[in-house]
Design goal:
The chain has 133 residues and is an all-alpha fold. Helix content is 98%, strand content 0%. The radius of gyration is 56 Å and the shape is rod-shaped. The protein starts with a helix and ends with a helix.
């Protein structure tokens, strides 16, 4: 009977040891579940931040598209304005050429009249001198 009692005590010790091991495994599983919950919470936070970041990037892309459209419109407007300025500049150059030709004609006329006046003044002097004699 001693052997049976020792055998039973031995089995009881083994069962206690197994029970303790099972309890340790359960505690480990509980801790692991806690960590997994914490990890899931952190992942949800990261997903929220990513969604927010995606919205901001989409908003930035929209603003960049709007800015690009504005720059394109301004470029077209500037080109149109420069074409208008060039056209007006050519018109002004043409007008200045006409004015220059008119001024040159007037100068020629004045020079011609001045030379004719000099000739007439000389003739008048000659006639006055003849009349004095």
């Amino acid at each position: 009977m001693d052997k049976v009692l020792q055998f039973m005590i031995s089995i009881e010790k083994k069962l206690d040891h197994i029970s303790k091991d099972v309890h340790d495994v359960k505690d480990g599983i509980v801790r692991l579940e806690g960590r997994m919950d914490n990890l899931e919470s952190r992942m949800e936070t990261i997903e929220g931040r990513m969604e927010h970041l995606e919205k901001r990037v989409d908003s930035l892309e929209t603003r960049m598209d709007n800015l690009e459209t504005k720059v394109d419109n301004m470029t077209t407007e500037f080109r149109s304005h420069f074409v208008k300025i060039e056209t007006e500049l050519e018109q002004h150059r043409g007008a200045f050429k006409v004015y220059e030709m008119n001024v040159n004609d007037l100068k020629s006329g004045v020079n011609h009249l001045s030379s004719q006046m000099g000739i007439h003044d000389t003739r008048i002097k000659v006639m006055e001198e003849r009349l004095k004699i």
